[in-house]
Structures are given as structure tokens and as C-alpha cells.
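On clarity, I found the account of how folds are encoded harder to follow than it need be. Since the whole study asks how a given chain folds, the encoding of that fold should be made plain. For illustration, here is how one protein appears when written out as sequence plus C-alpha cells:

:::
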Amino acid sequence: MVNDLTHKEINRQSTIRRNHPLSFDINNELKSINPSLLNFINSITATIRERKHPALGKANDTSSKHLKNVRTYNILSLLQFCTNPSQPLLIHDLIADAVEICGGSRQLLRILNRLGCTSSPDTHDRFVTQHAAKQRTESLWDELSPTTFTVASADNFDMLQSYSAVYCGNQHRSYHGTTVQIVQPNSTFEICQHDEMCTSIPSAYNEQQQSSVQEVSVQQSSTLNAVHKRTLQQSPDRSPHKAAKIGPKRPRTVTVKNLTSSLLNDTTINTTHVYNQPLTMADFEESNEEKGEHLSMSSKLFSYISLKYVAHHCQDFNCTLSDMRCFLDNDENTTIQPSQIYYMELINENPDSDETMCIVAEDLLEKFDIKEQDGWVVLVGDGKTYQHLMNIKQQYGVALQKLIIFPGDWHTLKNYQPILMKVYYHAGLKELAKSCGFRSATLKSLETCSNFKRTHCFLLQVWEATYREMLHMYTTNSNPSYLVDNVKCILAAAIEGSRSPHQLMVRIEALLQDIASLTKFKEFVYQMAKSDAVWSLWVNFVFANCYCYLTLYLAVRSSNWNLRLSSLKQMAPLFAAFDRDTYERIIPRHLADLKQYPTGVLQCLKAGGFTVSITGKKFHSVAFDEAHEMCINKDMKTAVTHPSHAYLQKTSLFFNYRIKAFKNLMQVLFPERFKEPAYHNTISDSTPYVKHCEENIQKMCSLIDNSSMLSIQQENKGLVNVFSGQVASAEQTADMMTFRDIGLQAYRQYINTRILQRPSHTNAPLRRHRLLTMSSTRTKKKRMTPKEQEAKQVIKCLRRRLQWCNENNTSFDSGEEQYSMLPRALADEDGCPHKSNKSHWTEKLQQRYQSTQFSIITNSLQWLPQAVIIDAMFMINTKPLRRTTTMAEYGKLLYQQYILEHFKMGTSEVHLVFDNPTTKTFNPKKFEQARRHKNKTPPRHEHHLFDISSPIPQGWQEFLECVTCKRAIVEAIGLYFLQTGYLLLQDQQKLIVSGCFSNECAWVITSGVLPDREPSYTSNALEADYRIRRHATQTTASKILVCSPDTDVYNIGLNVPDDNKDYTIQLNVQHAVEKKYLILRHLKIAFQTDPDLYILPRENLSSIMQSVYISTGCDYISYFKTFGKATMINIFTQHATFISGYNDVGSLHQTNPTDKESGFLSFIRLVGTCYFKKHVAAFIANYEHTTPMQLYNSIDNTLPLSERHQIWLQKIRQTVCNRILSEEERVPTYTSLWRHWLRSCWIHQMWQRSILPDVYSSLPPPDQSGWMKNGDDYSIDWEAADVMDKIRGTIKFLTKGCSCKKGCATNKCGCKKRSNHCGPGCECQGCTNIPVIQPQQQENPGQDSSSSSDDDDDIVEQ
């Protein structure tokens, strides 16, 4: 009979489908089992006591009864498993998964399966696959309400990092991924539909065009949404598995052809960031509503502290008052509706990158693209995440216009803690922490803020203790006895009448308002702060610096929007003061973005939608990023047992089910562990945590009182730590007393210059403050860099040379000494050219010529360009969006973002110019690439060949760093425009593509016509920089806009013939917030009207300035280490007459093979003048010359010009050598500068020939122009071979030698064996192998001593 009943039960359960993770419940399972079978199990499992007393089995002991039910169900499951092993129950699958979660191996699963406790590993794998497949077909809105306000949060997921057993160098043992959580804060928050954000408008065109853009902005949004929704409908399913996600990837059927018609009818695509309403400084200051919330919270906190103070000092009350939140709650209702939380799958990408955040944003935009949500996505992240989101919004513009980014408040609190600790830890917090029992590790964690909860609780306790002591000083010295007496009476009555904390606070607040206690108390403490520095420091702590931290915490817990904004505005100046750059930028940007939020979203946030209620308790809400850590990250660390790629690929979609099912199983088996603690809504609270906090506060109060930290009678001794006796210095005192004012000034300056875009009165850059506090400066041990090792060797050589000269009575010529075989002023220790910031050249020109009649740089175009030439190599730095799955779709994205807006504004001709490094011409760019990738690990991937149907590769940046793959990407983009470009264009629109293919021709694409070659743009130039000049001169358009942030581009154009064309160069990227344009014609006029350059020939002036730019450093030419471009151009303009116009002795424009020797003399004067000006004090002392021309004129003018310049440079080298600290500051030799000049001439000639189709045929051979040929390869020729051999011999002489210990008298000594004397590099003992020094004859002072010096020189050479 039992067997029949068991089989019937198996058949019954086989018909039940339990896919929901919360469907399993033991009590319900037992109720559904046949009573006869259940009675049989109960009878055979009854204890002896139950058999004697059957009534005991019906006892009311809940825990015993639950345990009995669990074990009874286990016996039933074993019975059914033994009867039919091929069909395990749900409990077997859940236990198998629980075993895996708890760290069990597959071998343990096999053992338990053999015992009948779990399903087998293979069955469990099928269980995982089944639910993963089901999860793939489900939608986000199956579990969440589509009409409710919804917020997403993204954060990094770090696993096993703190448990790493050994240090593995750069190989991290931990796992780093990205998790995304979806939250609906409150089901009553309905999102308003059809809210529109403001769209961007370009600032480069006139007002009429701007107004037309504004009229179609709403239509633009709906068109893009329709196109995107149609894309989703054409996809095979809505699986969240996309590129860069774990798990199988589904194919896409959407092509660019499907999107072409819609995008052609689309409105202008803009990326310039503007706001709905004009912003003013008042938007970043507290509003009246925020000030009201601030004052209300200040009154409540004063009432609460008064209660705690009276309860502590009056012996009548033997109780501990409840937590602060119980008293601050305005509502008697202690519960609210819990938020709905949904976990998305784990992304196998590090979150600290723009690419990962772009993946997250695209996935969310796709999921939220439903009618009820209207497409808006609110995405919350920490500081780094917020920055990445800002970057992608700026980069992709309208494609992400529905994305609303929001900073996480918990991370704001977390990053504010180190600021408070930096200021106050060594001013007294350290000693207060010790009084509460903090020691060593816990004390260190407070200082470093490594444990948020510990630091948070400590700060709140210190704040309350300090506040209480100030109140104690007030009540003791101002004698308001009525305050204490009245509060005491009200408190006693409330305790006796069992009133709620809210009722007590209402009466206390009414009392304190009637007697104006808060106003009088603040007058007292601020008066004390004026007379004493210690009082001032801690008053600011209580009422300003720590107060805003506390109010932001309370604003989050109480979901108070206005209090949150008030707190952020009070915290922002401290982030600016202490150089916390991330939040110094984030908070003002967030406050400005609030003006752009849709109305419905902003209303939900103001109603409390910026917090999450996990427990449903009032005043226990948490921030979105805090909920992210508490929920998905915590649960994922439980669910992810083996963070390997294969394991995650198999189980990624199963994690959501696993987490819920495991939680439910644990609650079913151990209900006592998951019982929520009772919410104490009473005046007193006796829980251990509350008692412990009160004990710590009382200890702090006692220490403050005993140390007289807030004493009234003491005289002002300055800022001092009264506990340790440490006195702050004058600089520390000034910074600690005024850091909020300093931060407020920096905060306003940032808003004015970066957000409001107002011109600064001082034009001073935003600098780091590096404020001083009473904390000691930290010292870090670091490994010696190659530069430091070189400096160590130089010092060693100098010391040995000086010692050797002293021992041998020889003179030391510092000008002839050099201890590096490379000219370190031009090359680094590895022989790579120095690189500097080219933009300083532009900044200096703008500063020099901006106040002239013709401004060279402007923020807007005054005319519509007829032709736009785009440096397309900057386009491909745009990472593909995740919905961009093929190269064709990526080409469409580039067209939409970089080309379409020009056509929409009326431009008829757009040129895309790419690099074409496929020709077999010498290309010096490889030296630049070697320098750029010197410290990078080469990418490890197979080279790919791309066409327009190829999928977008993973790791886009890695492919761009590979020259071969980058070229393949360029060819695929060019192929896309050739095949589909004529479908994208309209009438009278022309697209010219150049540099995409191995041939040297350009292709012209027009609407409705197949592409055709255009020979007028043919060029064999390797770089787009030179091809741009060819395109600019060959086009028939007269108004040309060149879009390239490369400074080389407009300097190449300085020699463009005067062909009555207007050339304007956009100096920053196309999607920049504030665009900058350089007008080339105005720059030439500025050079010609510069009074410092009037002596130079007008016809050669542009060529001279171009040569100055090249020879002082460009893409292929090394920079001078100690001189930036701004310094070089300053010195050149000050001494232009001497450098390039002095008695016709060479000019910088002479770079041709016939006159480059004359030009080299001018270049020598430029370099020598720079070093002369830097060390002018030494030249005045040694030669009494104040200008480089005076030093040059002092040399014999009968000598040849070349020899005269060599002597002049040698004098400068000798003078500078006595003042330098490293080899990088040494003046290069004459021979190394000659080679540098040859390379500069080669580049200058190439720039001049860039308007021709053949750029390279007439150039001199590279091995005669400053490069060396090594077989089929080239390297940079830095120095003459004889000079390098001499330097090598000097270094060897000073650092290498024997180490004999027996006097060096035999041929066992290496020096003796080679017939050499021992030198300064030897470390021998008792040496007899030393040179014999002949004493000088003192009796004949007029005798020539040349023979003696010659002997010394021979010794030195040995």
C-alpha cells in the first residue's frame, strides 16, 4: 500500500511545474501529500516519548514542530527518490545548487546523489540550463510594473580580492565584472509620459539656423525612437546577451539598409551640451525651500541633542534614549512600501571604462524603450562610473539623449569621509577614538576610512559628543536653567505616559522655539569661535563640515530631496578645497543637469524616488548605490562560486533564479535566522548596539571635559590639539581655518568657467590647493626609475673625475664632460624622441594675438563652410555602440555623428581623409609609435581582415593599437562609403574619401551615382595631415573648414599659397562642448603685423614660423626636454633679429639642400639663445654679457662663420654645465644639433611638397637627413660616432677597473696587463700601478706648461 501511495505521489508531482524560485515551501508540500502516506511516515518516525504520549506530537512548540516537518519531508523525498531515481524532486535540485553555492565540489554532489539526497551533477546541469533558457525568454517588465518610475544602477563587482593568498604582480587573483540592478522605489510613483529633454544646438551657425534646429528637436527624438523600436522588432528575440556579455550571443538581422531611409529623413544630429533653462550662480546655491529644510533639520537636531544631554546629566533617568532616526521621523507610521528590486545578468567586463558603460547604457535603453517608460533611463553610479557616463553622453550625443545619469549618494558620503579625517583626525579625533577602545588596525582603518560603517558610526558619535559638550558649556556658563528644567519635565512626562518619540519631539521643539534657545545657543558658540581657534575649529565641525555629512545621511534615510540638495551644495566646497577632483566636478554637473531632467522624472525624485526601501521601515531608506552593494553585489558573491569564464558563460542567466531560490530555501529551513528584528519606536532602547554607542559618546564627552578642549576661561593659544599638545604651525592654522572659504572660491570659479562658460577675470588655471593640516606627510617607497639610475651614474662619474683631477693636479673642464652617449635634451634613456604638449603652441599664439584687430581663435563660425575636410583618423577613436554589430553599422554611426550635421547645415562637400601607410616609402612615424608603445604590452590577438559585413571585434582599442588591424578597419570603412554612400546623400551633396585603399587616388561619391575616381586629389602622402593640405588647395570651394585637433595640420597650412580662400581649422574634436576655430588668414596677418618680427622678410615669415614649430618638436621631431613650445616661441620673438635676421647669417626658412647649412647657423642661435636666457645670471658673472648677441660679438669675427658658432655654443655649454643637475639639462653638442636640423629640414621640405601628388620623390635620402640605415630598416642618428666613442671611453674609464688586493704589481692586474695605469674606476688596495706626476717648476713661472697638461690629457684618455 505504501508503495502504491508513493508512486501516486510521484505521478502527482510530475504534473506540477515549479519554475518560480519562491514556489517551494515545506508546509505547503506536506499539506498536498496523501494523509495516509504522511501518517505512515509520522508513525515510523515517532519518538518513544511521542508513542507513549501521542498528544506531544500536537504540541505548540513552533521550532520543534518546524524541525519535525523538515525531517519528515526529507524522509518522503528519499522514499520517492528510491522508488523512482530517474525523476528527482525540486528539493533535490535546490539542495544540489545549495551544495554548489556553499563551495561543494561535483564529487560531493555525486556522493550525496548516491545517498539519495540530491540530484546528480548532470541532472543539476540540465536544471541550470532549463532555467537559463526560461530567463532568456522573459522580459524585465514581467516582474516589474512598466508604468512605475524605474531606476537602474551599475557598479563594479569584485570577488575574492581580499582573500588573495599571495602577491601575483600584475596578475590579479580576484574577479572584476559589472553588475546592473533595476529598482522601482515606490509603486505609487507613475512616470509621466512624453516628457522631453532639451536637445543640443550647434553654436557655430547663425541664430536663424539655431531656431530651425530647435523647432525640429522634438520630431528628432520621436524619429530615432521609432527607428530603434523597429530595429528591436526585426530582431529574433529580446535576449540580453549582446557583445561583451557572458553567455551565447544571438545573431542580428538588422542591417544598415533597413535604417537608411529613416536616417535620411532625420533631423540634425547635434552633440553640443546645452540646458533647458539658462543657468545662473543661484542654481548652485541653496534655494529658499532648501534653506527651510536645513533650518528645520537644525532645529530637530538641537532638540534631540538637548534630550540626550538632559537624559545623561540628570540622575533621574536610568535609560538610554533610542536612535536618532526614531526622534526625527515626522510620521507616526513606521512602515512604508518596500521597493521592487530586479537583478540583471553579470557583465564580464571591468566597469571602469567608457566601453563597458556604453554597453550598459545601450542595453538599458533597449529594455526601457517601451511606451509606458517613454524611453527614459535613469542610471546611477559612483564617481568613476558617473565620469564614464558623462564621457559617452558627450561622445555619442543624440544616440544617448534618453540616458539620465545620477550620482550615487552613498559614494558621495564615502568620499567625503577622508576629507573630515584629513582635517580633524590629528586635531583630536585620534585621541577620542582611543578613548573608545580603538587600537592599531581599527585605529588605522579610521584614519584611512577603509571601513565605511566603522568610520560613519565614529563620526556620528564624535559629532554628538562635541555638540553635547558645547551645549554643556552653554548651560553651565550662560545659566539658562529653565531650559534644562523644562526639558527634564517634558521628558519625564513622556516616559511616564509612554508617549512616542515623535510626540516627545513635537513638545520639545515647541518649547525651544518659544524660548529661542537655538538662536541664543548659536550666538554663544560663534562668539566663542571668534575668540578661540580651537573653538572655531570644532564649531565648524559641528555646524558646517560634519553637519552637511550628517544631513546628507539623514536626507537619504528619510528620502528628503531638498535636504539632499542643501547638503550637496554645502559639501561641494570641501571637495574643491582638498583637491577631490572627481566630486568637485560631479556635484556642479549634477546640479546643472537637474535643470535638464524631464518633468516626470524630477517629480518622482522630489517625492523620494532617489532612495530605495529594502526593509519597508520608515527612516531606513538607502541610496541607490548603497542598495546595489547591499543587494546584487552581496548576493552575487554568494551565487558566483567559480569566477571563471567557462563557468560564468554557463550560469550567467541562472544567477537571478539561484539567488532567489537559495534565499527561499534558507528561509524555509532556518526561519529563525531570517526573522526581522522588531522596530523600536519607543523613547528608550536597551538593545546592545544603542547602549554601546551611548557608552562611546559618554567616554568622548568625559575626555573633552577633562582636557578643557572647550573651556571658556582659557586664553587663545592658537590652534592646538589639547589631547596631545601638538601645536599647528602658522601655515597649518591658516589652511585649517579658511579651507571652506578657499573651497567655496574654487567651487564658484569652476562653475563660472566650466559650466556657465563665463570668461575668467584672472584667466588663472584651476590649480591644486594642497592644503596643510596637522597630519604628517606620508612618504612612499618607490623603485628607482631609469632616469634616477642615470642621475646616480652621473654623480658617481663626476665625483671620481673630481677626485682624479685633485690627485693628479689636473684641471677639470666641465664643458667637455658628458656621461650619456645620447643627447639627453633630445632623447630619453632608451633613445626615443622626447614628446611634449603641442597645444601649448596654440595657447601661446592665442595669448599673444588675441587682443589684436583680427582674433585668430573664435568660438563660432561667421560663415557657412562650402567644404568640410575631416581628419578621419580621429573618427575611428569613437568606440562602436553595442547595438552597432557590424562594420557597416559602425560606418553608419560615423556618418551620423561626424558627417550628417554638416550636410544638414548646408555644406555641399565633405572630405574624409585617412592615413595611407601602405606605400613603401620611408615613414618616420614608426619612431613616434615606438615611443608611444614603449611601456605598453603589445596586443595579443590575431590580425583580422574586415569588410562591411564583418562583426565588430571585442576590444576595440586593442585593435586600434595594432597597425595592421587599424588599417583593415580603415579599409572596411572606406568600402562601406563606396558601396552605400550614394544612398545616404541627397542632391548637390558630395562626399570625397581619400587614403582608404592601397592606391593613391581619391573617390568622389554623389547622390544616386556610383563612386568615381578623382585624380585632382591624388597623393602618395602617408599621413592625413599632408593629404588635408592637398585637398584644401585642390577643391573649388572658397570657404573651407578643416576638422582636426592635430596642431600640425594648421602649421602645415601656413605655406598654403594665397589663393583667396578662407581656411578655418576646428582645433578640438567635433563633439566637444565648446568648439574652437583658428582662422588661418588672421594668423598670417598676426605674424606680419607683429612688431617683434618686423625685421624678418615678409615673404618668408610663414616659412620661418613653420620652421620654428618643426625644429622645436612635432610628430617626427624631438622636443627639447627643458624647453616647451611656449618658451621657444617667446624667446624667438624676443630675439628674432639675432636668430633669423642677423647680418644675413642664415635664416630658419633655409631648409633646402642648397642652403640648409646657413639655416643651421640660425638654428644654433635659436637653441643657444634659449639656454643663454635660462642661465643668464651665469653669463653675466662669467662674461659680463647680458644678451646672447653680446657673447657672439665677443668672438673673433675673422674666423669662419661655422667655427665662430661652434665656439659660441661651446662657451654656452661650459657655462651651463656648472649649473645643471641632470644630463637632460646639458646643452646638446654641435654634431647632435646638426643631425636634429637635418631631420627638421626633411620634414619642412615634405610639408612644402604636400600640395603635390608626389610628396617624397624629390626629398633627400633619409640616411643623409639625420637617420641611419640598418639593412632595410632605419633608426635615428642621434650623435656622431667619434663623439659617442669618446663618451663611452670616458664612462668606462671612470666606472670600470681592477679590484686587486695585492698592489697591482704583476700581470694578474688587468690594468697592468694592458700596460695601463690604474684609474678612478679601479677599486684596488695598496696600488703601485699609478702614474708618476712631475712636479711643476716654481722657479720659472713664465715657463710654458703645455707639456704637463698634455701628459695629463694622455692619462685621462687612458
The longest strand covers residues 175-184. Residues 409-435 form the longest helix (27 residues). The two ends are 111 Å apart (CA to CA). Confidence is low (pLDDT under 50) at residues 161-173, 194-276, 1335-1358.
